[in-house]
Amino acid sequence: MTGRADPEGKRALFESPPIEIEDPLRDDPLVDHHEAEGHEALYSAGPREAGTTLLTCSECKVRSRISVVETVVRIMTISLWDPRRSYTRWMQCPSCQTRTWCKIEWLG
């Protein structure tokens, strides 16, 4: 082994490359541009994107941004709906992979 972390380049096949999101308000002095740190970085689901939903798990409290298609697939594969609860869907969490009550924000 030559000391490289990934000598065969397999990581490039299975990981998406990091991208920088263009911020139109980057040079605006009235906008606070702090980096997410600590608790905010851990529980942040990123910026709102078209075609995605925000799913919050009641068990692990992680907020995950997943596609609408993946959300519908998770709902169709053994889920329950109880509108009286604050976390209305019993389904598999994309973060901890356990079946628990989740909250879906369709426009989040």
Q: Could you please describe the fold and organization of this structure?
A:
By secondary structure, this protein is α+β, with helices and mostly antiparallel strands. It has a domain at 51-108. The protein has 3 helices and 5 strands; from the N terminus they run H-H-E-E-H-E-E-E. The chain has helices at 10-14, 38-43, 68-76; strands at residues 52-57, 63-67, 80-81, 89-92, 99-105. A 5-stranded antiparallel β-sheet has the order 2-1-5-4-3, with helices on one face. The longest helix is centred in the middle third of the chain and has 9 residues, at 68-76. It is extended. The mean pLDDT is 75.
Concise synopsis of the structure shown:
The protein has 108 residues and is an alpha+beta fold. The protein has three helices and five strands, in the order ααββαβββ. A five-stranded antiparallel sheet has the order 2-1-5-4-3, with helices on one face.
